[in-house]
Design goal:
4 helices; 152 residues; single chain; mainly alpha
């Protein structure tokens, strides 16, 4: 019984991380290409697809791991807040996901002395990445709720 619980929990966590990562990577790619287009660079649709795929594959070993690590910490804290204060899981996991990405991006800048993602150099890009984290947290909350409803 416990093994089944932990397998579902890990599956829900991985789905949330993958969802947030794919969304964040695609938004990053499109924001970078929008900036290039404003500079007069012509970008064909096939080039957009190619760059998006390259970013998905290229960012996964770094940004995917950053999202997973930040979600792990944030979701553990969120679970404690939900239990202690009887807060809405949808709200708290969503906030936890958004805040975790924001903190991770802010923490990496002084450590690495660069922005991991070029798109986060603008306020809009930074907010978009944080929203991807919030959506990932919402996905996690949704999956956990569905699992809870099935278990009853």
């Amino acid at each position: 019984m416990k093994l089944n619980f932990y397998l579902r929990l890990c599956t829900h966590f991985l789905v949330a991380v993958i969802f947030a990562f794919v969304l964040a990577s695609l938004i990053h790619s499109q924001l970078v290409m929008a900036e290039l287009s404003q500079l007069g660079v012509k970008i064909l649709f096939k080039d957009r697809l190619s760059m998006s795929l390259d970013d998905l594959l290229g960012l996964y070993p770094t940004y995917g791991v950053v999202i997973a690590a930040s979600f792990l910490i944030a979701f553990v804290v969120a679970k404690q807040l939900i239990k202690r204060f009887k807060l809405s899981p949808n709200l708290i996991y969503g906030l936890a996901g958004g805040v975790s990405i924001s903190v991770a991006l802010l923490a990496m800048h002084p450590i690495l002395d660069i922005s991991l993602l070029a798109s986060t150099r603008s306020t809009f890009g930074f907010i978009c990445q944080s929203l991807c984290g919030a959506i990932g947290g919402g996905v996690f909350a949704y999956l956990r709720k569905q699992n809870h409803n099935i278990s009853q």
